[in-house]
Recover the amino acids of this structure.
């Protein structure tokens, strides 16, 4: 099995991991803060009300797609992977929260995206980096108000 090379970045958010993961779990609110997400629909949920699956409709530059991901929720992180996509062939992501001594939380975002059409690796990584940076900034703004 291929281990994906993931793009990674992090940000410090002044909130606890449960609050941050709560915002991440509210996928239907993503169009309000996640750049490029036009619409999101949560499907089946776990006992805590977090989605086990969700479908996103996005437009990021020239790439427009509808895709579905499944989730694996843990106490301090969430992982997701593509189960259905049109323009996407592969998608794996993780948000990981680590409590800091000063009371904030370090949020790391790992992302690996593979389009159905071949793209030069350097351009793919640049696109991933833009997505990761925008998502972390949007998440921070959403959580901290």
């Amino acid at each position: 099995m291929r281990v994906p090379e993931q793009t990674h970045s992090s940000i410090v958010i002044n909130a606890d991991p449960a609050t941050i993961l709560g915002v991440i779990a509210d996928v239907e609110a993503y169009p309000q803060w996640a750049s490029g997400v036009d619409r999101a629909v949560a499907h089946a949920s776990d006992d805590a009300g977090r989605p086990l699956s969700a479908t996103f409709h996005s437009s990021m530059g020239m790439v427009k797609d509808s895709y579905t991901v499944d989730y694996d929720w843990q106490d301090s992180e969430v992982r997701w992977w593509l189960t259905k996509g049109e323009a996407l062939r592969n998608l794996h992501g993780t948000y990981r929260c680590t409590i800091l001594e000063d009371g904030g939380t370090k949020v790391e975002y790992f992302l690996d995206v593979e389009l159905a059409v071949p793209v030069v690796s350097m351009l793919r990584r640049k696109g991933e980096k833009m997505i990761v940076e925008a998502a972390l900034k949007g998440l921070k703004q959403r959580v901290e108000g």
Summary: The chain has two helices and seven strands.
